[in-house]
Task: inverse folding
């Protein structure tokens, strides 16, 4: 798995509305890229709701948040609509970004899913911290606190 100090891989993936999103769209900004197993499952719903509930806090802190899974655009659109998410979810349907990052897979109910993993990317596109096997409960608050500490150290 890529770790702190590595550049985050370039990507070009559609969001839930089919709009192409690229790493370069976030140049000069702090970015959280969180990877989750599957749309509309319990943990992933908790995580999406938590990031939506704290989006204003991330916005005030100048931090962008995007979620990524192997689900397609239509699945993401339904997931966002069902729970009124205000964060973008990107469709990595061929898992190219997850493979480039070296994210592991887990088996659940006889199916394989990508592990819940989050990356903090600094304004220059470098990975600053990786969170593996993330618990969806309260993770957004940990990210906010950690990034604020990183920003203070960099100042």
Result:
């Amino acid at each position: 798995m890529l770790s702190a100090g590595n550049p985050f891989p370039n990507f070009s993936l559609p969001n839930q509305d089919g709009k192409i999103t690229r790493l370069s769209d976030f140049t000069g900004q702090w970015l959280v890229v969180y990877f989750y197993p599957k749309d509309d499952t319990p943990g992933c719903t908790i995580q999406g709701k938590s990031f939506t509930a704290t989006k204003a806090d991330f916005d005030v802190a100048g931090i962008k948040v995007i979620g990524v899974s192997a689900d397609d655009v239509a699945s993401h659109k339904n997931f966002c609509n069902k729970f009124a998410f205000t964060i973008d979810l990107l469709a990595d349907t061929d898992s190219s970004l997850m493979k480039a990052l070296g994210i592991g897979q887990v088996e659940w109910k006889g199916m394989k899913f990508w592990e819940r993993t989050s990356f903090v990317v600094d304004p220059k596109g470098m990975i600053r911290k990786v969170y593996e096997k993330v618990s969806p409960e309260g993770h957004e608050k940990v990210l906010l606190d950690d990034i604020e500490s990183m920003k203070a150290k960099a100042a």
